[in-house]
Amino acid sequence: MQIFGDLIFKIQKEKSNLLIVISNYLYVIYEGKSFVLRF
After folding, report:
1. Which domain holds residue 16?
2. What is the DSSP string of 1-39?
3. d(Cα 5, Cα 3) in Å, to the nearest integer?
4. How far apart are CA 3 and CA 36, in angstroms?
5. Which segments of the chain have a pLDDT < 70?
6. What is the total count of domains within the chain?
7. In degrees rounded to 5, what are phi and psi of residue 14?
8. Angstrom distances, CA of residue 37 to CA of 8, 28, 32
9. pLDDT above 90: percentage of residues in the chain
């Protein structure tokens, strides 16, 4: 059971890391667009 719990924890951690990467990526695109629109 411990191994299973560790596996689930690892998957959740990877998912949160992936979400952070995606949100950062979207933020960069958003910032880039607003930067272009300003000029």
Report:
1. 1-39
2. -HHHHHHHHHHHHHHHHHHHHHHHHHHHHHHHHHHHHH-
3. 5
4. 49
5. 1, 35-39
6. 1
7. -65, -40
8. 43, 14, 9
9. 0
Residue showing tokens 């667009």: 33
- Which single residue is written with the structure tokens 């995606």? 22
Q: Token digits for 1? A: 């059971």
The two tokens of residue 29 are: 């695109």
Supply the pLDDT for residue 38.
64
For residue 7, give the amino acid letter: L
Alpha carbons 35 and 4: distance in angstroms, whole number = 46
